[in-house]
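Q: What does the assembly look like in three dimensions?
Context provided by user:
Components: two
Sequences:
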Amino acid sequence: MNLNEMTVVKTAEAVNNQEISARYLIERTLEQIKNNVKLNAFACTAGAEAFEQADAVDQKIKSGYSLPLAGIPLAVGDNIAYKELPTAYGSAAFRKFKPPFSAAAVEKLIGAGAVVVGKINTGDMGFSSHKALSPAGPVMNPWKENRISESPGSAALAARQCMLALESDSEGSLRQGASSCGMYGFRPTPGRVSRYGLNLSSGSYDQVGFAASTATDMGITFQATSGYDERDILTSVSREAGPKPDPNKAPGEITLAFSPECFDQLDSISAKHLKQFQAKCLDLGFKVVESSLKLLPEALKAFYIIAYAEASSSFARFDGIRFGTAAEADELEDLYYKTRKLTFGHEARRRSVFGTYILSKGNFEQYYQQALKVWTLVRQDFNNAMANCDFLVMPVVSGAAPSGIEENDFLQRIESDIFTAPVSMACLPSLALPAWQEDGLPAGIQLVGHPFSDEILLNVAEMINTETIFPDTDKSAWEEG
Amino acid sequence: MNYEVVIGLEVHVELHTQSKLFCACPNRFVPEPNVNTCPVCLGFPGALPRLNSEAVNLALSASLALNCKVASISYFDRKNYFYPDMPKGYQISQFFEPIGSNGFIDIEDDSGNPKRIRVGRVHMEEDAGKLVHSLAGDMSMVDYNRAGVPLIEIVTEPDLRSSGEARKYLEKLKSHLEYVRVSDCKMEEGSLRCDANISLRPKGSDKLGSKTELKNMNSFKAVEKSLEHEIKRQKKILDAGNLVVTQTLRWDDNSQQTVAMRGKLQAHDYRCFTDPELAPIVLTEEEIEKARVSLPEMAEARACRFVEEYGLPDYDAGVLTASRNVADYFEECLKVYNSPKAAGNWIMGELTAKLNSSGQEIEQCPFRPEHLAELLKMIDENVISGKIAKDVLEKSFESGKSPGQVVSDEGLLQISDQSELETIVDTILENNSDSVENYRSGKTKAIGFLVGQVMKETKGKANPQLVNELLKDKLKK
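A: Here is the predicted structure of the complete assembly.
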């Protein structure tokens, strides 16, 4: 059986029908990870604990159960707690740290039959490897030499080192990485999936999200993980399920909006592709309109001011006293300095320093409070833009997957978030889906929905039905099967 | 020079909840360190706070009891500073928008005139852990049992003008908070903590002088004493033409003086901002009204009612209503046996003494209101004498037996049988002919001695009234 291009749906079905075993899937997956270690997608891989889980799944199926994610190899972001494996937050001080609990989403995915094959390599304190150097180095893009992936889960997925990835999305790294790896990356409406267990840098913007290779897979994953969790108050909005998609709805009853300001922010090649994608939507029968997004540049600045401010405070807990590695020190202040130096890389330090500055006396009003005002305006701007449409279609990034990291160009890297960070700010669900290829590299678009329209959004993505293409690799553990 | 004293108090009160403010850990003292902890109150990455609604209800009741305006929407903010007892590196507090504001407490000033002390704000926050230093001084350890325990901070305007007023304010505050069952307010145990800001200014000036902050007072008495001490200290400095240095001072109970706290002098910049991980507290008009309506009758109103309804003297009514539990005890007793004056006297006298010596609280002591009622009834019905009743109370208090049980177990029934007493009286008269002589020669006080002898003979069980009558009658002959 060639599992090379199997989806979650088909694979789980095969496991549920006992055509293949979960154990077999995990064996193949771990081998595939070994086949392409230079991708650097994994911080650590599971061993015995994964096989134990897989055997438990097989056992359950033998005793008559059917699981929606039976045997699906799952990769989990290294800033998301999983008690069976070290959770390092991309930090040297946490290399061996096993948290005392697992994240809510991890529990739910395991409950649905998924098997954790490893922790994926987040950058410093969970920031994307595009933003932050991980002590382990950047995660590479399986499509092209010397290109990186902003989302390690999407890289692992495209390289078939997992079939599903759980990771975080704040300024948009998940959607960006999915886009540059030709995969689907989903940031649900805040509160639809519990973020208990995600190390929050920014409580305002950080969410858990998923990388998968089809919209249908994403739908199953979302269904398995969404819902109320008493440990995350944000999920109290999920006490009632979201509106269900109408299966009889034709594309002609759905309005997609494109924003002229987005075209203005794109390089000419990406703009050309987005125009073609717009034409494709018309061909598919969708209603297509224009909607103006006036505040993208302002939103981006306000986003970072707030994210930096929150990070400086959220990271204060990393003092070496309760968890992580503490540095040797003679006195308290020294302990703080040395431990934090050991714990944080460049990006976390940058956010701590800038965030502290932003919140300090004299700066608070002109930066932080001003940014909060902009935030309100940004939400209004999106509200207005969405008033006459069901979904916004936006670019994910301008251009293709970025090349490696140069430490000093952080402002430029921030600018690449101009399409994704404002969507996070507006608290809207957003799915990156593959849309075109240019020069051997894939790129995606974002489908942005109204709050709580997650299920409908994933359904419409199925209707758009772009084909998922995987990069060629020299060797695949899957083909041998 | 004549100075005016200006004092403002910041009081932290532990809310008496089942669990901590943002997690399910029990809010209870345990001696073993770090037992009542979880990923949330230890600040683990990935653990999220979730607000305890019981704490909000108590903070709401406290705000209303202190006559505050309650905010229909208030927020939790992060107050950022590093210290090992603060697990997250910030304290979750209410900085920008407290739950209660613009309240007041009415007290009497030093001359007994009514005075209103403004309460600027009541806000909710979480407590920190506790640092424990090894005896050798080479190690510091942290106990996070207390981290995340819900507190309210109650801040007065600088309206207090003497140490006496400060003490009266604290007593009133304690009474108010006890009445609404928000906290047990035990300063000695740390469930109520008080910091004081104090400055002096020339009488008539409306400009505030430079202030000092006093900390580490562990009783109301210590607050009063430390303020007195600080008033004297500041007066001396000002009289010498010097300026008071703004600083934080620690009250040292052993040496009975204030000591400058060691540590940094620089002002902290707490970089407060609203916590993005917590939703605002939203209270509707109906919820606030419902809480207002369900507030208990407070001490002052209850005292007035006690005077009117039970005919108690003002003083007794004041003492009996200062604590809600005492007032409840009193009224519970009356429900069983309606003798207000006697009940009040026994509560204020014997029972309070017994509670103090045994260190028990009235609501937990084994001598229940119905026991007191039974005791009072037995006295009134001459089953036992008042003197014996004291013993009965003591024994009942210690054993938890009802007074009736104690009386029958110990054979303490009052002897009111005339013939039985006559025999005893006759014997006493026979054996004390001197006193009989004295009485008959006009020294009528001698009868007291004779009564005493009868009581001694009967181990106090004789009905004293009857003994008196019998003696007088026989001595006349």
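Follow-up: Residues 418-476 of chain B form a domain with the Arc Repressor Mutant, subunit A fold (CATH 1.10.10.410).
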